[in-house]
Write a structure and sequence with these properties.
about 120 residues, alpha+beta, 2 helices, 7 strands, elongated
Amino acid sequence: MAELGDGHHAEPVLVLGPDDGCTVVHTWTCRAVVVDGRVDRVEQPVRLAGASRLLLPGDESPADRVVVDEEAAALEASVLGVSVRYVSAYSVTGDGARALAERRARELADGNGTQ
């Protein structure tokens, strides 16, 4: 690569053909809100911009995950005096993200855990 001279940079790249079996996966998110022990709302799933990736043969699909924002819950409790829980779910499909958010919101509404 020294032949290129100063100011040039080169990186090796993987070139895939149309029959190489790669797949584009997207990351979807869905938010839910639990207020005073009841599911207040479950929002429509949204595809996250810039969070798509190429899944190469042999790669595992990204794992689903759910996050409960405990800091926001503590702030709501101290400022407003109400119990508000914010759930964010992430999946490779919108339906998957929504199902995860709904399930976790129901668990929180029923008093089953904090995280």
